[in-house]
Design goal:
Helix content: 10-25%
Distance between the termini: 32 Å
Shape: globular
Strand content: 25-35%
CATH superfamily: Ribonuclease Z/Hydroxyacylglutathione hydrolase-like
Order of helices and strands: EEEEHEHEEEEEEEEHEEHH
Number of strands: 15
CATH architecture: 4-Layer Sandwich
Number of domains: 1
Largest sheet: 7 strands, mixed
Number of helices: 5
């Protein structure tokens, strides 16, 4: 486990799990001890230990692809509420809450705001940490381009529109992007390359 971001009142913990090297993040309010886990991807025993150690209260899913949801049943069985968008809910074996665009999830004194970014899946969701330059982008935005759109529910023009309208235009250049796989990047690093991605078609 590493700390992906730290500032007054907040810690973002990071682990990599499963055969697809999924990033799992825990956003924790250091003032209250409350926390949420983003993407119960795999290795449920490890994630349950993490939840207990860090005070996790609920699980939020960025989207419903199999590699991001393998530990959902075990975490629900352990009493953790799981949230997913309505568009991706049928991809999960079970869930508790439906996430909609521009929801605010309170984590102690922190606030996570939802950003619906369809294109990788119909219900793909990013989470922005308010008052801090942090975006959890799921499989919507990576270093070097958008997430894959070849699977059912994926659409390249849609993901480009989501990235441009919902991420690149409103977010500051110094916003740290923490994706569902691989390394971090920033909005400012990726924004100048949008037309390249459009031209190459992926």
């Amino acid at each position: 486990m590493t700390v992906a971001f730290e500032a007054t009142g907040v810690e973002v913990h990071h682990v990599v799990v499963g055969p697809m090297d999924n990033n799992v993040y825990v956003v924790r309010c250091t003032e209250t001890g409350d926390a949420v886990l983003l993407d119960a991807a795999n290795e449920h025993d490890r994630l349950l230990d993490l939840c207990r150690a860090l005070g996790v209260r609920k699980v939020l899913e960025t989207h419903g692809h199999w590699d991001h949801i393998q530990a959902v049943p075990q975490l629900r069985d352990a009493g953790y509420s799981v949230g997913i968008t309505a568009e991706d809910a049928s991809m999960l074996p079970s869930y508790d809450e439906v996430l909609t665009d521009d929801d605010v999830i309170e984590v102690g004194r922190l606030r996570l705001r939802t950003i619906h970014t369809p294109g990788h899946t119909r219900g793909s969701m990013c989470f922005r940490l308010e008052r801090h330059p942090v975006l959890f982008s799921g499989d919507t935005l990576f270093p070097g381009g958008p997430g894959a759109t070849k699977f059912e529910g994926g659409d390249f023009p849609t993901i480009i529109r989501s990235i441009d309208d919902r991420l690149f235009r409103p977010l500051d250049a110094d916003t740290v992007v923490l994706p569902g796989h691989g390394d971090r990047t920033t909005i400012g690093t990726e924004r100048p390359h949008l037309q390249e991605w459009i031209d190459r078609g992926w």
